[in-house]
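Translate structure to sequence.
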C-alpha cells in the first residue's frame, strides 16, 4: 500500500472532476447552455480560421505576383553610369 500523500491531493478525485462526464457536469444546470460555445462554428479551429478571412487568398495572390515580377519585369540596367 502506498504511503498517504502529505499534501492531501487525491489524483482520483482530480481526474473525476476533470472528466466532462463526471457527476458534477451532470448536475450542472448551465452545462448544456454553455456547450454551444465550443461546438460547430464556434469551435477553436473555426474561430481561428475565420479570424483572418482573406489571408489564404492574399498569400497566394502575392506569391503569384512575386513570381510574375521575377520572371517578366526584369529591368535592363547594364550601365547605370551611361546616360
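Result:
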Amino acid at each position: 500500500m502506498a504511503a498517504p500523500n502529505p499534501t492531501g491531493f487525491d489524483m482520483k478525485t482530480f481526474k473525476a472532476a476533470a472528466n466532462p462526464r463526471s457527476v458534477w457536469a451532470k448536475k450542472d444546470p448551465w452545462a448544456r447552455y454553455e456547450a454551444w460555445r465550443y461546438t460547430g462554428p464556434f469551435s477553436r479551429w473555426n474561430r481561428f480560421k475565420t479570424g483572418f478571412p482573406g489571408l489564404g487568398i492574399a498569400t497566394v495572390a502575392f506569391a503569384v505576383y512575386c513570381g510574375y515580377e521575377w520572371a517578366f519585369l526584369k529591368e535592363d540596367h547594364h550601365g547605370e553610369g551611361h546616360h
